[in-house]
């Protein structure tokens, strides 16, 4: 274990049984490395996929910034990642960056994926068009607030087209419920914007119900790679979240939460 000149960037992915998830996250991190040559970029998973986050942290020495490849504040960001960091040895000091969303760069990635899927809009079709922002879902109210914020930002990016957040689990409305709600408002040309970092069961399940088009997961979109680096640099301006695996203090957690735009 050799200390590096700059803190390592540890991307923290959820993990999935879908083999496409690991390939997608790996491609995203390759794009991050292309944008920042020489930066030590590593990957750790919360569950299922390898390497697990604990093993990634054990192989590091010096300083690191953990960047969650997650789209809002929820159980994993608030509890699971800090808990794993708290068990790291005293060879490591680490900061935990804010999750990727909400942020304008994330909205650019969502918009880009919709365009790739065939999104086209003109003055004649605005009134009949709507979008469902399909997310994984969480019981944490902060996570739902972050998804709603992203939905509002995406609606603005799309020129005022209504965007309803919907969830594959743990929260409501579901994707079918959101589709029905938009149809009841006269929106019969409805796209599903996939609010997932990588492929998986929830992403596939959400896209399957699309009455028009469904975008691909965000994946290695250039805007997402830029956002990963932005969260890394942003975290470097904040105090260390402890030394040698110390658990984050309430003040440290408040700093991390404050990084997420209101």
Automatic annotation (TrEMBL):
Keyword GTP-binding attributed = no
Domain of life, per the record? Answer: Bacteria
InterPro entries referenced in this protein's UniProt entry, alphabetically: CbiX-like, Sirohydro_Cobaltochel/CbiX
For this UniProt record, the keywords arranged alphabetically read as follows:
Lyase, Metal-binding
Question: Which Pfam families does this entry report, sorted A to Z?
Answer: CbiX
Q: Does the keyword Transcription apply?
A: no
What protein am I looking at?
Answer: Sirohydrochlorin chelatase
Name the source organism.
Streptomyces xanthochromogenes
Query: What lineage is on file?
Result: Bacteria, Bacillati, Actinomycetota, Actinomycetes, Kitasatosporales
């Amino acid at each position: 274990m050799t200390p590096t000149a700059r803190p390592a960037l540890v991307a923290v992915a959820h993990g999935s049984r879908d083999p496409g998830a690991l390939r997608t996250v790996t491609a995203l991190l390759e794009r991050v490395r292309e944008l920042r040559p020489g930066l030590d970029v590593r990957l750790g998973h919360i569950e299922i996929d390898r390497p697990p986050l604990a093993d990634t942290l054990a192989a590091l020495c010096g300083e690191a910034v953990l960047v969650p490849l997650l789209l809002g504040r929820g159980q994993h960001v608030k509890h699971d990642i800090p808990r794993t960091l708290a068990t790291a040895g005293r060879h490591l000091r680490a900061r935990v960056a804010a999750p990727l969303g909400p942020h304008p760069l994330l909205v650019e990635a969502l918009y880009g994926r919709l365009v790739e899927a065939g999104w086209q809009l003109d003055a004649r079709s605005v009134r009949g068009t709507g979008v469902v922002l399909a997310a994984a879902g969480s019981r944490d109210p902060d996570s739902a607030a972050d998804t709603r914020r992203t939905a509002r930002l995406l609606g603005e990016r799309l020129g005022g087209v209504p965007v309803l957040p919907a969830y594959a689990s743990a929260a409501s409305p579901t994707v079918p419920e959101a589709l029905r709600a938009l149809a009841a408002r006269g929106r019969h040309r409805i796209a599903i914007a996939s609010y997932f970092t990588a492929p998986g069961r929830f992403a596939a399940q959400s896209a399957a119900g699309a009455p028009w088009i469904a975008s691909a997961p965000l994946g290695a979109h250039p805007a997402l790679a830029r956002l990963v680096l932005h969260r890394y640099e942003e975290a470097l301006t904040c105090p260390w979240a402890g030394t040698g695996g110390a658990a984050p203090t309430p003040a440290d957690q408040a700093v991390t939460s404050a990084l997420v735009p209101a």
